[in-house]
Amino acid sequence: MDAEIVAIGSELTRGAKLDTNSQWLSTALAEAGITVHWQVTVADDLPRIAQAFRTAAGRSDLVIITGGLGPTQDDLTRDGLATAFERPLEFDQSQFDQIRRLFESRGRTMAERNRLQAMFPRGATPIPNPIGTAPGIWLEVSKGDRSESVCRFAALPGVPSEMKRMYAEFVRPRLPQTDQIIRTARINIFGAGESEVEERLGELTARDRSPEVGITAHEGTITLRIVARGTSEEDCARQFDAVRTTTTEKLGDLVFGEEDVELEHIVAEHLAKLGRTLAIAETATAGLVAHRLFLTERVDDLVVRAITLSPNQFATLAEMTGSPQLAENEMKGLAADCALKLRRDARSDFGLAISPFETVRDAQVAAGLAISLADETGVEVVRHVPVGDWSIARSRAAKAALDLLRRSLARHR
């Protein structure tokens, strides 16, 4: 079954609001074994809405619409269905009575325009709305091909709480049953670029492969998105296990977690298990490493010092005089001295230091910096060259520092 989601609203096409309904519906339909092939967003314009519905009917078996079912002049979903399929709107007294009772139960006076919400395209069936004034619309129309197949339309309100309940209680039970289920999983990677990861994985990410494995990147974190189709949970789990095994064999310790697990979660978990303490001094990352760690709620007693320093303060901590804007080797030496002194002064197991940016190439893009980690065996220093604007550069640098700590903690286990 080919499914499509159509989101109605100029606030969506203008970017004033984020379309979270389509994301939720795509996930819900996948759980029902139905793949969404198209997501369409249409402004509050009747001819364009009607055209979107006609196009959807010609290529999809199921179309779920969100938004445009209110009583105002820019709520055009019902008119769009009526226009697209030449189904005149007809008044439904029972739905009107239900809307009126809802207003009365809330102690409110119903405006005359709410009568519009009881108008339905000829041949449509109302979808009850237990918690709102906008009933949905279920409409089946011919796809226009010789097979006499139909396209099912389910129009739901744009209010997420109403849409989700109506889908679960009244739309999902109407969908064709299938013996196939679709499940998704994510594997998170750090320490290599997107193209390098794909090259090392080889055929794992090939198109038309089962399970489907796609790659996305966000601020240095590479995520493998796995889509498994099977007849049971066990079938999908076996497919996930096969991808995990291959990924670990080919990428090794670049793999750090799954699903919503971030680098800071792994670091916090390892610190807690080992009972080790950490002190952090940050300049280029402006406190972002400490911020990420403290959000895990597992390191309150393990991060014994977390300070954010100006470039001059960073140099002072390392007992160095002069400008902190140094050449690459000098900056690495400064970071190493800072990490060692930080660990000693804080009496911590680890001292993590992130230097200032070495230089500024231009006003938009950050330059290199040094990350240093000191422990009982000595000090390790790496140079990190950020990519992107300042906010992305800081985020990537913070992740690089957390990854350095993650790898060191793994050796201590």
From TrEMBL:
It comes from the Bacteria. Gene3D superfamilies: 3.30.70.2860, CinA-like, MoaB/Mog-like domain. Residues 4-177 form the MoaB/Mog domain. Signal peptide: none annotated. InterPro entries: CinA, CinA-like_C, CinA_C, CinA_KH, Competence-induced_CinA, MoaB/Mog-like_dom_sf, MoaB/Mog_dom. It holds the Pfam family CinA_KH. Belongs to the CinA family. NCBIfam families: cinA_nterm. This is CinA-like protein. It comes from Stratiformator vulcanicus. The gene is cinA.
